């Protein structure tokens, strides 16, 4: 199996351009301007990081690796197991999941087939393949020691935990089953001493395959938002919602105007399945959000009043919502999300009724709401959460090219 598989794992080396000045004083722009010295830094090429990657399409030359390996790189080189070296092009990245896709122009590549990571169970045997500490083609074995791990990075997490030795340099490498199929991409280690202590983490192959396909098709990830908050049920929470069951996931909040709201999903509903996937823990929902893209239609199964109900949730890029559903001071507005390079960066007032409560408060059409009480408001969901139950607030906004505050 390893003779077939190891050729599909490559070494990824990145290089950065470092600018240095002849004198420390030259780094000061005021010094250069006062003495009319031009800025003439010297540039040198410096190795930035080294890790691993997995060939996922031999014909097209696509390789998947970690975002943190290639972040800020000026040059990327890929070395195959047979010693061939190629410059690589960065196709795109997804920082919240720590994935990147590279492409090389090479023949006779070996790709790894994907396994369904949802079929993994604790105790399954797995093998990690990578280039730890710059050593070529190192293989370690172990078992899946836990599933659904989170709390390691800021982003979408549903990690496979393994005791197969994963060390620095293994990042971006393959975690395979005993048939040589890819079950995960190694991404992190728990290493208080700087080395392996028997706990490593991998991004599940299901998440990798969805995000990889999105990056290859568009060059970036067009992730959509379902628009609800869920939490694990416990007896106290079940009692507060009047539920007869104490297991599963309960919807605790629904974003006004969002996809879940449009599908008539309500707080207190028990979330059973999304597209056939059982929702047993918060990481199940988080991993579903990670692979939910604009244009998707999700079949959602909920339980309400002991009845099973199916809803179709349509994921659209631009939500619009009446501001009065979020706060009485926003009554009279229509709000939409603002995107920059496919990332939500604020809430836009697309229209406003003259003499409405929002108009009297000071809002105008064209305003972009950026923060509530110094807490960033990147999208309507965050705006609704920050203004929920709040009577008075300071709203930071941008109007044309100026920034200001509105207090109410």
Would you kindly provide a written description of the structure presented here, covering whatever features stand out?
The chain is mainly beta. It is built from nine helices and 26 strands. The protein has helices at about 1-5, 30-35, 65-70, 205-220, 235-240, 260, 280-290, 355-360, 380-385, and strands at about 10-20, 40-55, 60-65, 75-80, 85, 90-95, 100-105, 125-130, 140-150, 160, 175, 180-190, 200-205, 230, 250-255, 270-275, 275-280, 295-305, 305-315, 320, 335-340, 345-350, 370, 375, 395-400, 400-405. Strands 5-4-1-2-3-7-6 form a seven-stranded antiparallel sheet. Strands 20, 21, 22, 23, 24, 25 and 26 form a seven-stranded antiparallel sheet that branches. The longest helix has 14 residues, at about 205-220. The N and C termini lie far apart (about 65 Å).
